[in-house]
Amino acid sequence: MFKYILESAGNINWMAIASLLTFMAVFIISAVMAFRSQPAFIDRMANLPLEEPNPLNAENDRHE
């Protein structure tokens, strides 16, 4: 029955519609999560690559 419905639908590209709906769902969910997150969390994530828990110095740097 589902095959008959798809055949009678004409030239609708169902894969393109499914891809668009998937993209829109992921985009909306990520936008909602970004706007609902705490500003302190956003600041911590923004500075995360810049923080060094173990700073490099000459004693730890062994290039042999």
Concise structural overview:
With 64 residues, this protein is an all-alpha fold.
Polypeptide structure, described:
It is a single chain. This protein is an all-alpha fold and 64 residues long. The chain contains three helices and no strands. Keywords: Membrane, Transmembrane, Transmembrane helix. This is Cbb3-type cytochrome c oxidase subunit 3.
Q: What is the topology?
A:
Elements: H1 2-8, H2 14-36, H3 39-47
Keywords: Membrane, Transmembrane, Transmembrane helix
Transmembrane segments: 12-35
Protein name: Cbb3-type cytochrome c oxidase subunit 3
Helix content: 55-70%
Average pLDDT value? Answer: 80
The residue ranges in which pLDDT falls below 50 over 5 or more consecutive positions are: none
The total beta strand count reads: 0
CA-CA gap between termini: 71 Å
Q: In angstroms, what is the radius of gyration?
A: 25 Å
Count of helical stretches: 3
Keywords: Membrane, Transmembrane, Transmembrane helix
Transmembrane segments: 12-35
Protein name: Cbb3-type cytochrome c oxidase subunit 3
